[in-house]
Design brief:
By secondary structure, the chain is of the alpha+beta class. It has one domain. Helix content is 14%, strand content 30%. It has six helices and 18 strands. The strands form four sheets. It has a nine-stranded mixed sheet. Strands 5-4-9-10 form a four-stranded antiparallel sheet, with no helix packed on it. A three-stranded antiparallel sheet has the order 11-12-15. A hairpin with a 2-residue loop joins strand 9 and strand 10. It is globular and about 60 Å long.
């Protein structure tokens, strides 16, 4: 029996050694290119109650067309490379004719700003925040037990960390950025901030060329074209508000969130469609389909078969003036060149990787009965050109890596209320 046991251990050791020996060596890509695509309906993403949204959502996402009141088709293009440019950085994305935006879009390299000196302690004339944050969650005319969850701003300002503010981590990939690249370029920018036509199409061949990256070539099919707009409607449901929407093709799930207050009150009130307590911008940006599937399973995100959700009466009473955001998570296309060698003994030296990610969003004032996100007229007029608009925020949410959920929640609080 002892000999048999020893032979089994020896066999396992040999198997582990063989597996380790055959593990393929992978070299990260020289260049990474991301296309972040949105079909945005209703109010501009920087509308009422827009605090805490990424600067990209407030600025760049307003650079789409649709000034006739229809949905905006928008893009954010990012190229990051570990190569230095031969001379002045220059790159462009050659686009298919169906984009109707010319032959190419320039990817401009922003000037690297000098880091500002850090200041310790509170700013001069700092006024400690007052009031509370009240958090509701779940779909239904009445809020569930244990609601609302209350965060006292004064205690947070004193360093007291609210326990359980964020209930889960969300895995958000890290994309190209100035800080993670030797050379970086993006669009829209000062050179070209044109709006994306409402009838633009991504289908066809795409090519990215630059003097600091390998040539990048990929093709997109109808599956990865702009998503259909979200048509969001509202109606009273007892003391709550019933949200209904169209089934968006290729959507992997839906999520809704609202924030508001009552006139004269110091409390800020937050609600999400998650079946458990959720707070922050983690779920209001692009997420990989696999991550969306996990969140659907955990009931943090509504499944694609869902067509309605009732905002509880308690939230509506506490925040009669609220701004609601809705997202339909779309497909994601990934390309890597060269393809992975089948032989694990052959190194996989990647030259470039490209990602195309899609979402469709709607933003409305909660309680405006019959107001459809896809038909709502954008307010605030044309957005400024891309100049000076910073991606900012959490992962275009900027792409923050999975981090401590509590820290993410506190960071969101500080961003929202300026302390």
């Amino acid at each position: 029996m002892k000999n048999i046991f020893r032979l089994a251990l020896l066999a396992l050791a040999c198997f582990a050694a063989a597996s380790s020996a055959q593990q393929q060596k992978v070299t990260p890509p020289i260049a990474v290119y991301w296309m972040s695509i949105d079909t945005a309906s209703g109010l501009p993403m920087g509308g009422p109650g827009g605090g805490g949204m990424s600067g990209m959502d407030i600025g760049r996402m307003m650079l789409g067309g649709g000034m006739d009141g229809g949905p905006n088709r928008t893009m954010w293009l990012e190229l990051g490379s570990q190569r230095g440019a031969s001379g002045t950085p220059a790159a462009a994305h050659e686009i298919p004719a169906g984009m109707k935006m010319g032959a190419s879009l320039p990817l401009e390299s922003p000037q690297r700003a000098k880091p500002e000196p850090r200041e310790d302690g509170m700013p001069e004339r700092f006024e400690k925040p007052r009031g509370r944050l009240l958090i509701y969650w779940g779909c239904g005319e009445q809020a569930g037990p244990g609601q609302p969850y209350v965060v006292d701003f004064a205690r947070v300002a004193q360093g007291e960390m609210p326990q359980g503010l964020v209930s889960r981590r969300v895995n958000i990939p890290r994309g190209p950025s100035v800080s993670r690249s030797k050379t970086y370029g993006d669009w829209p920018n000062q050179k070209d901030g044109q709006r994306v036509p409402v009838d633009a199409s991504l289908r066809g061949d795409h090519q990215v060329k630059g003097n600091y990256s390998p040539d990048i070539r990929f093709s997109l099919t109808e599956r990865y074209d702009f998503m259909e707009a979200v048509n969001l409607s509202q109606a009273k449901a007892g003391g709550g508000v019933r949200l209904t929407w169209n089934s968006v093709p290729n959507a992997h799930g839906y999520f809704a969130t609202a924030m508001g207050s009552k006139e004269g009150a110091e409390d800020i009130v937050f609600w999400s469609s998650s079946s458990s307590r959720e707070f922050g911008d983690q779920l209001t940006s692009w997420l990989p389909p696999r991550e969306v599937a996990r969140l659907v399973k955990e009931r943090a995100v509504m499944p694609p078969s869902t067509a309605e959700c009732v905002v509880p009466a308690q939230f509506v009473a506490a925040a009669p003036s609220a701004f609601l955001r809705f997202i339909a998570y779309g497909e994601e296309a990934n390309f890597v060149h060269p393809p992975r060698p089948q032989d694990p003994k052959v190194d996989w030296n990647q030259e470039w990787a490209a990602k195309v990610r899609l979402k469709s969003t709607a933003s409305v004032l909660l309680g405006e009965e019959g107001m459809g996100g896809g038909a709502a007229r954008s307010r605030g007029g044309p957005a400024a050109e891309g100049a000076g608009v910073s991606p900012g925020g959490s992962a275009p949410q900027g792409e923050g890596a999975p981090g401590d959920a509590l820290k993410e929640g506190v960071k969101s609080l500080k961003g929202l209320f300026g302390f």
